[in-house]
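User: Could you go from structure to sequence for me? I need the amino acid at each position, not a summary. Structure tokens:
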């Protein structure tokens, strides 16, 4: 009975791991095969994507900074 249970547990974990690998690799299978063959990717601009990501981070940091309250109060005349 323990043999059957252990087989079921290990078969289930194997199936889950195989599904995870297939689900992540299958959408980019053509790119994986191209990389294994040594073919360069068309329109590959990783540095441009990195620059855009860094700019988004900088804008978010700038937007998150505290600013002093505006001084639109009416001032009393002397």
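Assistant: Here is the amino acid at each position, in order:
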């Amino acid at each position: 009975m323990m043999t059957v249970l252990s087989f079921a547990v290990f078969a289930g974990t194997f199936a889950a791991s195989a599904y995870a690998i297939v689900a992540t690799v299958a959408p980019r299978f053509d790119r994986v095969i191209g990389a294994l063959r040594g073919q360069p990717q068309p329109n590959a601009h990783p540095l441009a994507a990195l620059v855009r990501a860094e700019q988004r981070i900088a804008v978010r940091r700038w937007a998150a900074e505290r600013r002093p309250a505006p001084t639109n109060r009416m001032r009393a005349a002397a």
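One structural detail worth keeping in mind: The first helix runs from residue 2 to 25.
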